[in-house]
Specification:
The chain is of the alpha+beta class. It has a five-stranded antiparallel β-sheet, sandwiched between helices. It is 51% helix and 19% strand. The chain has helices at 2-56, 74-79, 92-96, 99-110, 148-188, 195-225, 238-248, 250-255, 275-291, 323-326, 352-362, and strands spanning 59-63, 69-72, 114-119, 127-134, 140-146, 233-236, 259-264, 271-273, 298-306, 309-316, 366-372, 376-384. The structure holds adenosine-5'-diphosphate.
């Protein structure tokens, strides 16, 4: 009897054990299959990433924490003028021969994305835009783009506009002077000139004035875009500059029935800049604010310290700017809609804000607009405080 019980228990145990073994075997097989699938997915992702890198035509480099090249694609070798496979292991300085780029990469390691533009070799070498971004697993990604052709076309466009504006300016100035004289003669003529003819002469004078302004602004913009030098001075008082600029437009504002106020903090910290150019920026902003204000509207010019910057702003309560247009108003020639303008003020060139942005960025500052359609706009720019200490 005992033997029988033992035999049954043993057989039961054997069945149990073999079931467990089979279950463990199935688990192992499942895990192995999962691991194989994960490996395959990784292999496919890597292959896709490599294919994508080649497809973009961009140079891609992976650097470690010490800023040595861990990996670089063929395009990166081509753009840096290196033989295939010779970048790996080199330091960023050896790879780019540019100390500015090394410091940019160091700051990218510590913070957000960074961008720099370099010339490979001498001044005629290819222009490369380099974007850096910290890699999720440590180190840094660098992406290189050849912008030589873009820069060449930009230079041609700037030269063309510059030449054309110069050519146009002389005859236009003559036409403008003649139309002014003609308008004066027509006003004083005896016997009087018919009204219709006087109106036409006045229109020629106004439109010629717009053409002269457009040509002058085009020349200004091409000079500023080609990095025309600034006449820098230290310790500039942005409050005084803003107030002087506003004064230049007081008569224009009065004629449009607009109340122009200046509220600047006394004793603002000094900034470093080109006073004439910064004054011109405020003139452009105030001119627009008055142009787009209703009769009896208020325009307020402010300058105040905010952190380590001085912020100058021009606020109006006019037509405002639609959301979709807010990012575009700083583009050259961008105009929202002629119909929004008071007819007696005349149109603009669409260049004033493009010039303003260039001037402010040349000064290491920022310019932006806040606006609500139908309620008004505030254009502001911030410039770093130097207080004459630099
Ligand atoms: P413009 O010479 O035409 O005034 P700007 O570059 O100065 O050229 O301005 C671009 C466009 O932005 C203007 O045509 C106008 O539509 C819009 N804009 C500029 N300032 C204001 C403002 N204060 N209120 C409403 N719209 C404005």
């Amino acid at each position: 009897m005992l033997c029988l019980v033992l035999a049954v228990v043993t057989a039961g145990l054997a069945v149990l054990l073999s079931r467990r073994e089979r279950a463990a075997g199935r688990r192992d097989a499942r895990r192995a299959a999962e691991a194989a699938r994960a490996l395959e997915a990784l292999r496919v992702e890597r292959a896709d990433r490599a294919a994508l890198r080649e497809l973009t035509g961009l140079g891609v480099l992976e650097l470690d924490d010490r800023l040595h090249v861990r990996d670089a694609n063929p395009a990166a070798h081509g753009l840096l003028g290196r033989a295939a496979g010779t970048l790996v292991g080199r330091s960023i300085m050896e790879a780019f021969l540019d100390p500015g780029l090394e410091s940019m990469a160091r700051s990218a390691l510590e913070g957000g994305p960074r961008t720099a533009e370099i010339r490979r070799g001498d001044a005629d070498g290819p222009a490369l835009v380099v974007r850096a971004q910290r890699a999720a697993g440590g180190g840094l990604w660098l992406v290189l783009e050849d912008v030589s052709e873009l820069r060449r076309l930009q230079r041609i466009r700037a030269e063309f506009i510059d030449n054309l504006s110069h050519e146009l300016r002389t005859p236009l100035t003559t036409v403008s002077l003649l139309s002014e004289t003609l308008a004066r003669d027509a006003d004083a003529a005896d016997p009087p000139v018919p009204d219709k003819m006087r109106e036409r002469i006045a229109k020629i004078e106004v439109e010629t004035g717009h053409l002269v302004q457009m040509v002058n602004e085009l020349l200004d913009l091409s000079r500023i875009e080609s990095g025309g030098s600034l006449l820098l001075a230290d310790g500039l008082d942005m409050g005084r500059l803003a107030a002087d600029a506003a004064e230049r437009l007081r008569l224009f504002a009065e004629r449009q029935g607009v109340n122009l106020r200046v509220e600047t903090d006394p004793g603002l910290p000094g900034i470093r800049g080109d006073g004439a150019r910064l004054g011109q920026v405020v003139v452009n902003l105030v001119h627009n604010a008055v142009k787009f204000s209703p009769d009896g509207g208020d325009v307020v010019v402010r300058a105040q310290p905010v952190g380590d910057e001085v912020v100058t702003s021009v606020e109006d309560h006019g037509v405002g700017i639609p959301r979709a247009a807010r990012d575009r108003v700083f583009e050259r020639f961008y105009k929202i809609d002629r119909a929004r303008l008071r007819p007696e003020v005349g149109g603009g060139t669409g260049l004033g804000l493009a010039i303003a942005r260039h001037v402010i960025e040349q000064h290491g500052g920022r310019i932006w607009v806040e606006s609500e359609e139908g309620r008004g706009s505030t254009f502001s720019f911030a410039l770093p405080v130097t207080d004459g200490s630099e």
